[in-house]
Write a structure and sequence with these properties.
The chain is mostly beta strands. It has no helices and 11 strands. The strands form 2 sheets. Strands 2, 4, 5, 6, 9, 10 and 11 form a 7-stranded mixed sheet that branches. A 4-stranded antiparallel sheet has the order 1-3-8-7, with no helix packed on it. It is elongated and about 50 Å long. The N and C termini lie far apart (40 Å).
């Protein structure tokens, strides 16, 4: 079993910054992909940013140039630096990881979510 623990959410004014962290622990052989999704009230969950173990990244168009995803593979941790935050960034942010176990199985896991609220 694998656990993802997120931290770093909160209330911030428009134009401000936040940094989210997500640490994975448990039965991990390798983590193929880690990413951040978000879900606003009444909307579907959407991909915000993702990163492979090799360092390839992808971003939602709405956050390009403002958000940066990074990973510390040694710590099985992924970060999301969010700058120039807008009210429309308000959502619950979820960490996701595609984890390979020691016998080659690949499973997806989710964190519990952390609230980000952008408001004056």
């Amino acid at each position: 079993q694998v656990q993802l623990v997120e931290s770093g959410g909160g209330l911030v004014q428009p134009g401000g910054s936040l940094r989210l962290s997500c640490a994975a622990s448990g039965s991990i052989f390798s983590i193929k992909h880690m990413g951040w999704y978000r879900q606003a009230p009444g909307k579907q969950r959407e991909l915000v940013a993702g990163m492979t173990s090799g360092g390839s990244t992808n971003y939602a168009d709405s956050v390009k140039g403002r958000f940066t995803i990074s990973r510390d593979n040694a710590k099985n941790t992924v970060y999301l630096q969010m700058n120039s935050l807008k009210p429309e960034d308000t959502a619950v942010y979820y960490c996701n990881a595609d984890v390979e176990n020691s016998i080659g199985g690949l499973y997806g896991y989710w964190g519990q979510g952390t609230q980000v609220t952008v408001s004056s």
